[in-house]
Design goal:
18 helices, 20-stranded antiparallel sheet, 2 domains, alpha+beta, elongated, single chain
């Protein structure tokens, strides 16, 4: 019986209509429904080795696991210019009685129809020899092969024309994929939104298309805020790393673009090069109502975490905890020129912070308001010099007894600073401690703005943009893991990537009425 099944598999493949291509050559997205939650495409499989070194890729370790298939020997010789993985639906059989069963599709182009046909024959033959029951059906002129191994998941496969090889976790998923390709109005390629943004992937070797509301449902996340419904992320190889280009499509017309800059703001020259996280841009008062903030709100609300840098800083802002300073209301609202924010890891639980703002007509009034808040909360507004620079500190005094046992009490006054600020050139600089202010004043040429590593990172990004978020991975892990607990899980799942990650730099460079665009440069160890 086994021999008959193997022979039958070979005869079916030989009879498939390879010479009559019933599907025109196009992106593999023709097989994916408009309603699919996720589609991930590798657009240059020759780069597959560099994308996923060793035996960690989906194709190598998961799909061909226990199949006896050698990826390099059996697949690479015929593999064409695209591989696509998709979650096609959250419940492919639409039967509420048996729970949700997501549909999974693997589609590959082939550059050698004969070799790919031989591969599919070999693949199913080995599964038959392992005890699987084989069945074949004709669907829309295409032979769909299905096996059902005992105590294992069903697998279906098909060769479509001379160009495509498909696999799915159920024949229903495969039939739907073939139907999508033959009725183009059903496929993702017919989506006007997808057409508008898919051009981003032209130079990439990896792209992911996300249907954001359905992805949230798939992951079991609530989406109380929905400002964007679709997103495309592409990966482009660049010198010393990877560039992720992303565009998000809004549910309604965008109206609050950020101001674009032609160079990094000079406020970054007061941020030390050893910073863990740094932000540099202009007009902080407009950020909370910007299009970028709308996207952060949606993602943050779904994950239940704070993603906005202002929120992260506020959670670690000692003065806010001690005497009720509201950063957005009491500081950020009056920042209309350049600004820079820096967080530096500290042995204590909270990181040290630096905030730099370009002076404007509203600056003096804002500083006076902060001084008044400090005094109202029992802090002393103290003035003194440090390195010949006039300093203002918000301090709390306490008496310390330095006497030893049995001796007459000897007291001294100790001052604890909850914030320090000073004026340098046309900038007002705030720090969390006197030690951090000293570091800023003695920084000389060791600034982030002059740092070679930072320059290399921003060189990979568009020159005109709305500013930068720079993250030194080694110096910021403690800060990020405290604010983003999900990061610990990601480090386990993508350990090889994070082990090689040196830094990441984020920028937003375009938010017209119909899309929000940004880039992330991942600098990797050489």
């Amino acid at each position: 019986m086994l021999l008959l099944n193997v022979a039958y598999c070979a005869s079916v493949l030989a009879a498939s209509p390879f010479g009559k291509d019933s599907v025109t050559e196009a992106s593999l997205s023709i097989f994916v429904s408009k309603q699919a939650p996720v589609m991930i495409s590798i657009l240059n499989p020759e780069k597959l080795q560099s994308l996923d070194k060793g035996e960690n890729s989906f194709l190598k370790s998961d799909f061909f696991k226990n199949s006896g298939i050698d990826f390099r020997k059996d697949v690479q010789p015929w593999l064409g210019n695209e591989v696509t993985l998709a979650v096609t639906s959250l419940d492919f059989d639409r039967d509420p009685d048996n729970g949700k069963s997501p549909g999974y599709l693997l589609a590959m182009t082939t550059k050698s129809p004969e070799k790919s046909r031989e591969f599919v024959q070999l693949f199913f033959s080995k599964r038959v020899l392992a005890g699987a029951d084989l069945s074949v059906e004709d669907f829309a002129g295409i032979k769909v092969i299905t096996d059902a191994p005992k105590d294992k998941e069903t697998l279906a496969g098909a060769v479509v024309g001379d160009k495509y090889v498909l696999f799915a976790n159920d024949p229903k998923v495969l039939r739907e994929a073939i139907n999508n390709a033959q009725a183009p109005d059903l496929s993702l390629t017919s989506s006007k939104k997808y057409q508008d943004i898919s051009q981003l992937s032209a130079k990439s070797y990896g792209a992911a298309f996300l249907n954001l509301p359905i992805v949230a449902e798939w992951l079991g996340l609530k989406l109380p805020i929905q400002n964007f419904d679709e997103q495309l992320v592409t990966l482009v190889p660049v010198s010393k790393g990877l560039l992720a280009q992303t565009v998000a499509l809004p549910t309604q017309e965008l109206k609050a673009p950020l101001e674009l800059l032609s160079k990094p703001v000079n406020a970054l020259k007061y941020i030390p090069a050893n910073v863990g996280i740094a932000v540099g841009s202009k007009n902080l008062s407009t950020l909370p109502k910007s299009n970028l903030a709308l996207f952060e709100q949606q993602l943050g609300s779904a994950l239940g975490i704070k993603l906005n840098i202002n929120d992260i800083v506020q959670q670690d802002f000692k003065a806010q905890k001690r005497w009720g300073v509201d950063l957005p209301k009491d500081i950020f609202d009056w920042v209309q020129g350049e600004y820079a924010i820096g967080l530096i890891s500290s042995p204590q639980q909270s990181p040290e912070w630096i905030f730099v703002t370009e002076k404007a007509p509203s600056t003096q009034e804002g500083i006076a308001k902060l001084d008044a808040i400090a005094a109202k909360n029992g802090l002393s507004v103290t003035e003194f010099n440090l390195l010949d620079q006039h300093i203002v500190a918000w301090t709390q005094l306490k008496a310390a007894n330095s006497s030893k046992n049995g001796t007459k009490p000897s007291f001294s006054l100790e001052a604890k600073a909850y914030g320090v600020h000073t004026t340098l050139e046309n900038y007002e600089i705030f720090t969390s401690s006197l030690e951090t202010m000293y570091e800023v004043l003695s920084i000389k040429d060791n600034t982030l703005l002059e740092n070679r590593n930072f320059k290399n990172c921003i060189a990979a990004l568009p020159e005109t943009n709305a500013g930068y978020v720079y993250i030194d991975w080694a110096a910021s892990q403690e800060i990020l893991e405290r604010q983003l607990p999900v990061l610990k899980l990601l480090k386990v799942v993508a350990k090889p990537f994070f082990n090689n990650l040196r830094s990441l730099t984020v920028t937003n460079y375009g938010d017209d009425a119909n899309s929000l665009k940004g880039d992330v440069f991942f600098q990797l160890e050489e």
